[in-house]
Amino acid sequence: MISHFSGTVIAAGPTWVVLDNHGIGVKVLCPPATAASARVDQTMTLQTSLLVREDSLTLYGFVEADDRDAFELVQTASGVGPKLAAAIMSVLDANQLASAISAEDEATLCRVPGIGRKGAAKMILELKDKMAIVAPAGSTPAGTSQPVAPWREQVADGLIGLGWSAKDADKAVEEVATLKEADPSMTIGNLMRAALRSLAR
C-alpha cells in the first residue's frame, strides 16, 4: 500500500498529475481541483490509494488524508467502484460527504454525476454508520491555505479541462467569486467543487 507520494510536478491533465521522484515519473489520478492546482516544477504531496488489478496498478491521490479515506470507504457500498468514488470526491470533500450522509441529504449526493435518488438512498443506508469514522459530520474542513496562483485562472482551467466551455467556466467562476470574497482563505479545491455544483444546477 502506498499511503502518500511526493514529487515534482512534470505534467498535469484534467484529472491527473505526473510526479517525478528520483527520476521515476508516477501518474496519479486525482480530483479536478487538485489537478488544476498543480504547477509544473513545483513539489506536490498527495495522500494516495493504490488500486491493484491483474492488468494494472492505478494510483489515486488527494490533498487531504480524510478525502483519501472517504474515497476508499465509499467503495464498500454496493455499486460504487473507483470511477464513481472518484466522481464523488470531485464534487464533495470528506466532511461534506459525511454531513450529507448523516443528514440523509439525497439531493446533495445526487449532484454527483452517476448518482440518482435510488443510488443516493442506498449509499446513505450502507454508509451512515461508517462515514463518521472517516470525517465526523460538522468537523472543519482541512486545508484552507491561500492558493499561490490566481484562483480564477486555476478554477477556469480546471473546468475547461473537464469539457466545459470557456463561457460556462467564466460564468461558474463569477458564481463562486462571492464565496472567495467572503472567505479569502478558501482553497482552490473548495472553489472548484462550488463551481461544479453551480454548473450542475
UniProtKB/TrEMBL annotation:
Renumbered residue ranges of the record's region Domain III: 151-201
Renumbered residue ranges of the record's region Domain II: 64-141
Q: Keywords assigned by UniProt?
A: ATP-binding, Cytoplasm, DNA damage, DNA recombination, DNA repair, DNA-binding, Helicase, Hydrolase, Nucleotide-binding
Q: Name one GO cellular component term.
A: Holliday junction resolvase complex
Cell location: Cytoplasm
A Pfam family: HHH_5
Q: What does this chain do?
A: The RuvA-RuvB-RuvC complex processes Holliday junction (HJ) DNA during genetic recombination and DNA repair, while the RuvA-RuvB complex plays an important role in the rescue of blocked DNA replication forks via replication fork reversal (RFR). RuvA specifically binds to HJ cruciform DNA, conferring on it an open structure. The RuvB hexamer acts as an ATP-dependent pump, pulling dsDNA into and through the RuvAB complex. HJ branch migration allows RuvC to scan DNA until it finds its consensus sequence, where it cleaves and resolves the cruciform DNA.
Q: How does it assemble?
A: Homotetramer. Forms an RuvA(8)-RuvB(12)-Holliday junction (HJ) complex. HJ DNA is sandwiched between 2 RuvA tetramers; dsDNA enters through RuvA and exits via RuvB. An RuvB hexamer assembles on each DNA strand where it exits the tetramer. Each RuvB hexamer is contacted by two RuvA subunits (via domain III) on 2 adjacent RuvB subunits; this complex drives branch migration. In the full resolvosome a probable DNA-RuvA(4)-RuvB(12)-RuvC(2) complex forms which resolves the HJ.
The text of the family note is: Belongs to the RuvA family.
Output this protein's name. Answer: Holliday junction branch migration complex subunit RuvA
